[in-house]
């Protein structure tokens, strides 16, 4: 397996535009996580899915952010409208089960988003 | 105005020396902990984990120690190599499976 695949790797967009980040989890993994990483707040969990169903979205900053998982092999994180403070690296991760035991989460390479 | 970014704690060690990276976690109910390594431009990568019913676990060149009394976790890297240079994060399983990450420590290995 190629691991968790995210696209694009880099995105530069103007304030007010819609941004869509994409993720392909590792095949067979039932859990998918979206994280945001900034210097100010470190790695923050935004939302996670189990079997394509959103379980906990309490980390989503505001209504401008939305995430979907239409099938087991694809998820999107959308920001509309984007703002400069959304600039960060967004990571997608997947795991076989919740990290309650010896079950690590595998991370993608991340999407570096810059909103100007 | 523009926010000022925080500077990560930095640990600088000589190649071949042992490194110890520390982490304080927040939730006494957390029952699972992971150390991740993040190299520049990459996502976090699993290093080693430990459950709360253990106080020590060893891997290849790495050892994790858990002190539940003071809610402290440490990662020891033996014979540190230049390839170990990265940011290291501890993560705790908090509230039913959500991994909460620490601030991170930047390890710099001098040749």
Task: Describe this protein's structure.
- The complex is a heterodimer of chains A (116) and B (111).
- In chain A, 0% of the residues lie in helices and 53% in strands.
- Chain A has 116 residues and is an all-beta fold.
- In chain A, strands 2, 4, 5, 6, 9, 10 and 11 form a 7-stranded mixed sheet that branches. In chain A, strands 1-3-8-7 form a 4-stranded antiparallel sheet, with no helix packed on it.
- The mean pLDDT of chain A is 92.
- Chain B is mainly β and 111 residues long.
- The radius of gyration of chain B is 14 Å and the shape is globular.
- The relative contact order of chain B is 0.33.
- The interface between A and B is medium-sized, with 26 and 27 residues.
Key words describing this protein structure:
heterodimer, A: 116 residues, seven-stranded mixed sheet, four-stranded antiparallel sheet, 11 strands, B: mainly beta
